[in-house]
Amino acid sequence: MLFVIALMAFLFPLAYSPGPGNMFFAALGARFGTVATLPANAGYHIATLVVTGLLGLGLVSAVHPGTSLFVGLKLAGSVYVMWLAWKLATSGSTGAGMESGKAGFLDGVWLLLLNPKAYVIILLMYSQFGAMGPADLLARVGVISLVFTLNNLLAFLLWTVAGDGLGRLFRSEAHARRLNLVFAAILAGVGFWMMLG
């Protein structure tokens, strides 16, 4: 139990601080409401559970910082996040065409797969906690993967609800448009940070 508490204390600031996933889901919450983000949230977190498990078992060892694959993921991820920012910035605020801007299950999966921050956090987490917890490797990786995924899910839901609340405050067309632009600018900033960081 102490192992899980220590892991959660380690993950808390990482999951709740602004990053590509948090900003994406806050923007979706503001635009479409919390319920409409659930498919993308499910995609992101199912992918999180799978990738965390595979990395923990050493089955995806090519995704370490400094490798060509990691550099490629970093570039592709930053381009993808900037594309999401562009999509948000150029979308209408309400009315017709709104459905087409909703993110689905696969959007969530791609966001995780192309998010280098996620890989860095997962690898850092295993470097600190990979030798702790249950003696059995599968059980240990299972606990770490589940705690990481559930912690992220809670963080992303909180960011989504906060975005939803902002969206409700800014109901007019002009206010909603400005809110889209603010979230798009934040997402673009995160994309540039991913590219440079």
Q: How would you describe the oligomerization state of the chains in this entry?
A: single chain
**What's the average pLDDT?**
83
Number of helices: 8
How many strands appear in the DSSP assignment? 0
Low-confidence stretches: 94-98
**SSE string, helix = H, strand = E?**
HHHHHHHH
Largest sheet: none
Overall domain count: 1
Question: What amount of the residues lies in strands?
Answer: under 5%
> Which radius of gyration do the C-alpha atoms yield?
17 Å
Taking the alpha carbons of the first and last residues, their distance comes to 34 Å
In helices, the fraction of residues equals over 70%
Q: Which key phrases capture this entry?
A:
197 residues; single chain; 8 helices; globular
Short structural summary:
Helices cover 76% and strands 0% of the residues. By secondary structure, it is mainly α. The longest helix has 33 residues, at 137-169.
Task: Describe, in plain words, how this protein is organized in 3D.
With 197 residues, the chain is an all-alpha fold. It is 76% helix and 0% strand. The chain is built from 8 helices and no strands. It is globular, with a radius of gyration of 17 Å.
Topology:
Blueprint: H1 2-16, H2 20-32, H3 38-56, H4 68-90, H5 105-113, H6 116-129, H7 137-169, H8 173-196
